[in-house]
Design brief:
With 68 residues, the protein is mainly alpha-helical. It has one domain: Orthogonal Bundle (Arc Repressor Mutant, subunit A). The chain is 47% helix and 7% strand. It has a two-stranded antiparallel sheet. α1 packs parallel to α3. The relative contact order is 0.23. FE2/S2 (inorganic) cluster (FES) binds next to loops.
Length: 68
């Protein structure tokens, strides 16, 4: 399903990014552009990232990012 409509990012793409080494919300944002426009996807994107990180066993990563 689409998580970020603005950037056309799906939950599968987010999971793939985490599996490929993205270890934080900021890294996923940088790789995919999710949460970089309107921000309405932020809550769902964080949930998907958190679940993906838990699946990989990496739960120590920051789930927050600096707002410019
Ligand atoms: S829906 Fe993700 S930035 Fe707008």
């Amino acid at each position: 399903m689409y998580v970020c409509v603005c950037k056309g990012v799906t939950d599968s793409q987010i999971r793939d990014a985490v599996n490929a080494g993205a270890e934080s919300v900021l890294e996923v944002r940088k790789r995919l552009g999710v949460m970089s426009q309107c921000g309405k996807c932020s809550t769902l994107a964080r949930e998907v990232i958190k679940e993906a990180l838990e699946t990989t066993g990496n739960t120590s990563s920051a789930l927050f990012y600096e707002v410019a």
